[in-house]
């Protein structure tokens, strides 16, 4: 069985009723990109660009960043890669950015907000991404977007930089859905973004108001909570209005029990650590999309994550 799973890993994953689900990899650098290809990932669903910025004395230059992004895209050998702009601030501290200490870091200068606070930093990263080739295989993803104003602020700057650099083919631009407001406004965001990618780690933390870094709260921090399912349903419905696709790059994508739930809710891309790609593809191949769509709806009416999990196990038992 295991050998068969590995052998089939490089092939695309389709549900029993013939719908393709993209199984992508979460990576942090070029070495991970090579591992993702070896494990059969269809693409990179999330490059956390923080790796370039931490453990050093000053920010990487545009040129340094460009070399690193190009190396990742080259390693993907023709597959596409979603690269997320810097997601520091909050608990992810980078001393040389001299962001002010905050009382509530999780609600502070995080993600795109740290880029707004340090515009040169955001400019350098966007310019390095714009110089990465081919643009058709690159997708830029923005973390911690709360509403359309956040998205348009970056989109405008991206367009200006492209004009300054004489770049006429722009990479696709996507938004992470990891703040409840973004899920609620997914239809508005999808009007201006090319795709949406749900960060279930933060979306769970912010929806349930449970700090993801507090071990005492970990037991109740379950992405199968019906509140999360409703926000995911709202996200896919909003995206569908504008013909955009929705992926999941948070830990919920790696939860094999959650796969039929996410697919049933309309998610078409799942991004996980490279080593999990073969198993997730095998799981997708055992599911029927029409049945997932039908069975998932009553789960939204349940009252707790435990009830959702118990019911999901009955409906979609794992071999
Ligand atoms: C998430 O929040 O789900 C996510 C993928 O981002 P990170 O874990 O890097 O905050
Ligand atoms: Mg996040």
From TrEMBL:
Cellular location of this protein? Cytoplasm
Instruction: Report the family membership.
Output: Belongs to the PEP-utilizing enzyme family.
Name-wise, this protein is phosphoenolpyruvate--protein phosphotransferase
Please state which portion of the whole protein this structure contains, as first and last residue out of the total length: 517 to 835 of 835
């Amino acid at each position: 069985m295991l050998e068969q799973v590995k052998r089939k890993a490089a092939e695309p994953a389709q549900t029993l009723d013939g719908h393709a689900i993209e199984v992508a990899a979460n990576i942090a650098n070029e070495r991970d990109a090579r591992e993702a290809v070896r494990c059969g990932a269809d693409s990179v669903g999330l490059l956390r660009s923080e790796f370039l910025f931490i453990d050093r004395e000053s920010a990487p230059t545009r040129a340094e960043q460009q070399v690193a992004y190009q190396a990742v895209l080259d390693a993907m050998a023709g597959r596409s890669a979603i690269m997320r702009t810097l997601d520091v601030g909050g608990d992810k501290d980078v001393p040389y950015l001299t962001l002010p200490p905050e009382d509530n870091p999780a609600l502070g200068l995080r993600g795109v907000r740290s880029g707004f606070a340090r515009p040169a930093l955001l400019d350098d990263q966007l310019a390095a991404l714009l110089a990465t080739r081919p643009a058709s295989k690159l997708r830029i993803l923005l973390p911690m977007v709360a509403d359309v104003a956040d998205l348009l602020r970056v989109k405008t700057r991206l367009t200006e930089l492209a004009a300054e650099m004489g770049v006429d083919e722009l990479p696709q631009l996507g938004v992470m859905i990891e703040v409840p407001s973004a899920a609620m406004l997914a239809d508005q965001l999808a009007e201006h973004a090319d795709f949406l990618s749900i960060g279930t780690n933060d979306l769970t933390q912010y929806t349930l108001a449970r700090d993801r870094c507090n071990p005492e709260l970990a037991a109740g921090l379950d992405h199968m909570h019906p509140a999360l399912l409703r926000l995911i349903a709202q996200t896919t419905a909003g995206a569908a209005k504008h013909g955009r696709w929705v992926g999941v790059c948070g830990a919920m994508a790696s939860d094999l029990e959650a796969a039929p739930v996410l697919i049933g809710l309309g998610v078409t891309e799942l991004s996980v650590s490279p080593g999990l790609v073969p198993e997730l593809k095998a799981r997708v191949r055992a599911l029927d999309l029409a049945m997932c769509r039908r069975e998932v709806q009553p789960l939204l009416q349940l009252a707790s994550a435990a009830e959702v999990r118990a019911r999901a196990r009955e409906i979609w038992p794992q071999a």
